[in-house]
Amino acid sequence: MKRIFLALILVTLIGCVKAQNPNVTLVDAYPNLTFNKALHLTHAGDGTNRVFVVTQVGRIIVFPNDSNVLASQTNVFLDISNKISSSSGEQGLLGLDFHPNYSTNGYIYINYTAGSPLRTVVSRFKVQTGNPNKVDSLSEYKILEINQPFSNHNGGTVMFGQDGYLYIGMGDGGSAGDPNGNAQNLQVLLGKMLRIDINDTSATRRYVIPPTNPFYNNPTAGKEEIYTWGMRNPWKYSQDPVTGLIYCADVGQGNWEEIDIIENGKNYGWKVMEGFVCYSPSTGCDTSGKKLPIKAYNHSAGDCSVTGGYVYRGDRRPELRGAYIYGDYCSGRIWMLRYNNGVVTSDSLLTQKSMALTSFGVDQYNELYVVASAASGKIWRFNKSPLATGIGENGIKPEGYNLYQNYPNPFNPSTMISYYLPKTGLVKLQVYDVNGKLVRTLVNSSQSSGRYNVNFNGTDDKGINIPSGIYFYTLSSSDFTETRKMLMIK
User: Fold this and answer.
1) Mean pLDDT, residues 197-204 taken together
2) What is the model's pLDDT at position 21?
3) Distances (CA, A) of 199 to 43, 107, 166, 209
4) How many C-beta atoms lie closer than 10 Å to residue 257's C-beta?
5) Whole-angstrom distance, CA of residue 149 vs CA of residue 155
6) How many angstroms separate the CA atoms of 240 and 358, rounded?
7) What is the residue-averaged pLDDT of the chain?
8) Which of 144, 227, 281, 284 qualifies as a FRET site for 130, CA 20 to 30 Å off?
9) What is the pLDDT of residues 101-141, one digit of tens each?
10) Which runs of E-coded beta strand occur in 154-302?
């Protein structure tokens, strides 16, 4: 086992020292804007092409996704600066995600630290009626509160998965070395990835437990909210819209940073292990039942804290599509990693910039942004590749409709279908078999202009798995129809 660990460590170190890609640099995404302690960037998924920047000081800023946007065009979407415990260290307003049906219900979900007692709060707010750029600050509906024994390792990301459930990353409670043993204690929520269903409530909670959670209906074995455990501080994680894999950057203790693929019911090792090696005890630890990271790197090159990113699915750098982009808070180094069929097939340094790299984010076109906190307060993105033809500075702007080839293709059991709408209108996206029989209606609703990604999970309208074979998917509106072919192989 020790030889295996040493071999894995050698592979990860080799991945860290590959040469920088000279063609990839960072450019200022919004030259006229700066932000006070920015921690996250996202979009509403409503086709309005707005950007939302979360700041640690308790404010969310919204503005049009235009590189020429002015400070006068920004709005304070939400201000909870009076609710947070502190905006220093690892406390403050830490996370934001929009309900999958935000266009109709106006719900947002945030994660922040509050004081007296110090605790993590996950809450729902609602946008004001008639003002899409302002949240009703009095609409707070607290979903979950978890006491924090120390001021650091608060986690912070909240994310709606493709399954519709809310994922909540929780650090081990802080201090150093997990002194309370929280990460391996299944009767506490610290040091875990949680998963809850916020679309329903119970008699005692403002959510219900998904029946596929590992300790569902078995609280004596573990807290039912737990999805995974053995986490140290899962500050940033994201789900690839194409493969469905959840990539998590778990911040290390003193020597190793790691990237994990999050899987239901798995133990990620902390504090028994840090990365691929033993932490407590320092040698001879019990590695049985531990899920190893797909990548770990040490602090030898000025790195200190991994910052998780996203699998790139944008158009500015088409040669990076499918690669997981991540970085380091201290060194400002940014890497690309490709993970296919359970194996890391490549891992190389993309670029480096002197900054406190706090986060990554994506807009509605799946373009990637790099968020820097501290004095610079800037947001960066990749320079445009020569391979990105027909693209403007703010992403692809087709003159008309576009139906893209599904990916992966062939597929089993699911695939992603993407399309672009130039205007608001009634849209249908439907799947047919080779005989022209309707298999599934994926979309049948009015949608705003913008790019959309729809997952087809290989089932018909009755939820029955479809057989292998050739299928066709058609996008139609009042003045447009296009059909493409795809292949399912079992």
Assistant:
1) 93
2) 56
3) 21, 11, 10, 11
4) 26
5) 13
6) 20
7) 90
8) 144
9) 898 899 999 999 999 999 999 999 999 999 999 999 999 99
10) 158-160, 166-170, 192-196, 226-229, 236-239, 246-250, 256-262, 273-274, 277-278, 295-298
Q: What is the pLDDT of residues 287-320, one digit of tens each?
A: 999 999 999 999 988 999 999 999 998 888 889 9
Cis omega before residue 281 (within 30°)?
Answer: yes
Sign of CA dihedral 327, 21, 404, 393: positive
Bridge partners of 441, per DSSP, are: 430
Determine phi and psi for 359, rounding to 5 degrees. Answer: -165, 170
| Tens digits of residue pLDDT in 426-439 | 999 999 998 889 99
H-only helix segments in 49-93: none
Q: Supply 424's token pair.
A: 């608001």
Give, in degrees to the nearest 5, the angle at Cα 84 between 82 and 86: 110
Burial class (CB in 10 A: 0-12, 13-18, 19+), 421: buried
- Contact criterion met (CB below 8 Å) for 460 and 466: yes
Q: Which uninterrupted H or E stretch holds 255? A: none
pTM: 0.81
How many CB atoms neighbour CB 204 within 10 A?
Answer: 5
- Contact 233/194 with Cβ under 8 angstroms? no
Q: How many CB atoms lie within 10 A of CB 259?
A: 26
Angle at 165 between CA 460 and CA 137, to 5 degrees: 130
**Helical spans, DSSP H, in 100-162:** 102-105
- Across the range 81-91, mean pLDDT stands at 90
* Mean pLDDT of all residues in 83-91: 89
- What does each C-alpha distance from 108 to 33, 198, 206, 207, 250 come to in angstroms? 24, 12, 15, 15, 25
CA 167/CA 157 separation, integer angstroms? 8
Sign of the CA dihedral running 125, 128, 131, 134: negative
Starting from the edge strand earliest in sequence, which strands make up the sheet with 135-147, in order?
Answer: 93-98, 107-114, 119-127, 135-147
